[in-house]
Design brief:
alpha+beta, hypothetical protein PF0899 fold, three-stranded antiparallel β-sheet, 36% helix, disordered N terminus, disordered C terminus, binds zinc ion
Length: 145
């Protein structure tokens, strides 16, 4: 059932959105792997850090996350995205500052600033897990509802 939904969604999206789809798939893979160390625990949220230059569209990623996690144990997990601004270091005046994604110039002295310190991140910052209650059997029953 969820496989059909996934295929239909993939067929309907452009190649542009395939970028987010493959990112969502690798996040699911990484989170599933990490959560495997906590048997019975339920992932409630996944927090991402995404640089402003990583070319990820958050809305698209949220949509793809919903499609990818549908019918899996991660279906109820929230995806929380934190966009990190672009930060450069200016070799001319030594300042490290945030800049816009359009202009790669030092905001203080105007020199071209090409030493990128932040902005291309695409990483999982943390995974929030609901610890299973001491009575694990009850927690598992709740999950099937
Ligand atoms: Zn400068």
């Amino acid at each position: 059932m969820s496989q059909i939904t996934r295929r239909e969604a993939a067929a309907g999206v452009s190649s542009r959105a395939m970028h987010e789809l493959s990112i969502a798939a690798s996040i699911v893979e990484a989170v599933t792997e990490a959560a495997a160390g906590y048997p019975g625990a339920r992932v409630s949220a996944v927090r991402l850090r995404i640089g402003a230059l990583s070319a990820v569209i958050e809305d698209s990623l949220q949509f793809c996350w919903g499609v990818t996690t549908e019918g899996t144990p991660l279906a109820s997990a929230r995806l929380e995205v934190r966009i990190l601004p672009v930060v450069v270091h200016c070799a001319t005046c030594g300042v490290t500052a945030e800049i816009g994604v359009q202009s790669f110039h030092c905001p203080r002295c105007g020199a071209p600033a090409l030493d990128l310190r932040q902005g291309r991140e695409l990483e999982i910052e943390s995974i929030e897990i609901d610890d299973p209650e001491p009575a694990t059997a009850h927690a598992q029953e709740k999950q099937t509802l």
